[in-house]
Amino acid sequence: MNRLARESSPYLLQHADNPVDWYAWGEEAFALARETDRPLLLSIGYSACHWCHVMERESFADPLTAAVLNTGFVPVKVDREERPDVDQVYMRAVQAMTGHGGWPLTVFLTPEGVPFYGGTYFPPERRQGMPSFREVLAAVRHAWERDRTRVQESAGKIRQALANSATARLRGDEAAPTPDAALAAHAARALATAFDAQHGGFGQAPKFPQPMLLGFLLRHAHRTGDEQARAMALHTLRRMAAGGMRDHLGGGFHRYSVDARWLVPHFEKMLYDNALLARAYLEGWQESGDEALRVVCESTIEYVLGDLRHPEGGFLASRDADSEGEEGRYYVWTPEEVDAVLGPHDGPLFRRFYDVSAAGNFEGRNILHRPHDPGAIARAEGVAPEALEARLAAARAKLLAARATRPEPFRDTKVIMGWSALTVRTLAEAGGALGHANWLDTARSGARFLLDRVRSPSGGLLHVWTEGMPKIPALLDDVAALGNALLSLHQATLEPEWLPEVERLAEDVLARFWSAEEGVFYDSAVDAETLVVRPREVTDNALPSGSSLAIELLLRAGRLLEREDWLGTARSALAREAGAVARWPTGFGQLLSALEAELAGPVEVVIVGERADPATRALLGAALRPLVPARLVTGAAPGEPAPLPMPLLEGKALVGGQPAAYLCRDRVCGLPITDPKALEEELRQ
């Protein structure tokens, strides 16, 4: 066993028996590199990464390759999910060097941590124009020993490129547009030009779900009546739900589709994808009333609760793509396997509905998907659609039970603060809107876990917790995502105890991640470990950016608690990024949603009543059901003191002894409402 046996990361532990003399990221490795005058080989991956496993089997488990690494380099292995800040810096460097990036990320560093050469996956033998990994190692080592000047020049150029990139991202744009309705409309038009009208989504293969962009389109359509924006979002949600990227037996979604029609996924299942997509399907249902979208939301959440929930309250990071040494093996079927489980009556029906053929659609086997109109199949079978769905549901349950007997993909048990916070937010918003009290209970326990257990001894929030071991200071997206989650939890429950935590988190965002001098947010705190450059990413990737989450938190909490200082900072930060949003709208879905909330203007609902009173809960459900971009919901029991100064609560009382809701626009409130249907109708209008 190498040094990684001392680590808690499941990904690092997967490499603990490699013959490579791995170090974890830290001063020990850099000190050895300085002492022995060796370059570092930095390998970054994550446990659900298929090609990371391939490179491990081919190279890191090979004694000959390990010998080259151990004698000529200081090998460092990083879990990108534990250290997204490190990954971000060196991914940007490799992209600057090669024009592309991905995982596994392979970077060569000077003992000072400056990158001078890198790439992604390298095969064990020359293949398709790629050099072998050992050839790369030999060339780098030769350059280090014989041509150090060229190495230093390369390192200097890359360091300067990183610095220039950081400076460019800080530089103001005098010609930047105002963050206004014209910018939102421009973004919607840009998405329309990239929209795949046949299959949904944006661009061609590979195709990512991009829930942040769908959320923006739904909000834009709600505010403006833009039917094209609405149709793009709903069509994409429906096509993804029918495709093979969705797990039709177990629920939830795989990472992304390698083709344009959502058929063949990259099979890992990530917590954050499922949290964000469940929320997107919730909002699609709220905007359209399409019950099929509600079903997808519910099944996705139930998948998370059944497979990715830690018994102590947090949520687990991911499921691997591979099992039995093959990508996707756990999820695919042959016709014979289907018929063996379902028999001659239901087997052919299921195979027809889910497109299971002898030829297969993935390496001789079949990814389940729904290419056909259910109504047409019901008519061909001579049954009612409800009866068809009942037969298919029973068949899915049988196949799911059979699938559970297969060797399952590896599950990464890290609890990551930001990912779990996104899940808590989805549980709170969906639980409130759909009336699932158990989801609200799970959101409460998840929030308490993150607040109480993922902390340092000194009390600071941490980024990751793995089986009782919390570590690594929280990043901006961790803190801001948790603040937004607790705010949504307050809105879904009216419980006051979450608001002081929201206030503390908002203040932490400003104190440790905001640079007033530069007018920007950084992803790492001012007191965090110093890297080659201080990480700062404003665009959304698979996750919403920390900056956009921070802006959203300050806008939401600032409106609710009437903190003009928070609102001013958030609006200036939003304006600061308007030029980048105008140039590349597809990278800013979360920020555009925050802009839509600003344009729509705040809609406040204040509910007065005992929280356990069914009448109070009915009003609260009505307040949460419609999609309202800038909705704020708060309330209190009669006579209950507010945990923070909240002018919105002043003067609000029961009506005739009954719970009442007050609907306000920009703090100007109408007459109290006691009928939940009337409240929901007014909100929809």
Give your account of this protein's structure.
This protein is 51% helix and 11% strand. By secondary structure, the chain is of the alpha+beta class. The protein folds into 4 domains: 3-170, Glutaredoxin (3-Layer(aba) Sandwich); 181-324 and 411-600, Alpha/alpha barrel (Glycosyltransferase); 331-403, no CATH class; 603-684.
What is the element layout, followed by pairings?
Layout: H1 10-13, E1 23-24, H2 27-36, E2 40-45, H3 50-60, H4 63-72, E3 74-79, H5 84-98, E4 105-109, E5 115-119, H6 133-146, H7 148-170, H8 181-194, H9 211-224, H10 227-242, E6 256-257, E7 265-266, E8 269-270, H11 271-288, H12 291-307, E9 316-319, E10 322-323, E11 326-327, H13 335-353, H14 374-381, H15 385-403, E12 411-416, H16 417-434, H17 437-453, E13 462-466, E14 469-473, H18 476-493, H19 498-512, E15 514-515, E16 520-521, H20 546-561, H21 564-576, H22 578-583, H23 589-600, E17 603-608, H24 614-624, E18 631-636, E19 660-665, E20 668-669, H25 676-684
Short description:
It contains 25 helices and 20 strands. By secondary structure, it is an alpha+beta fold.
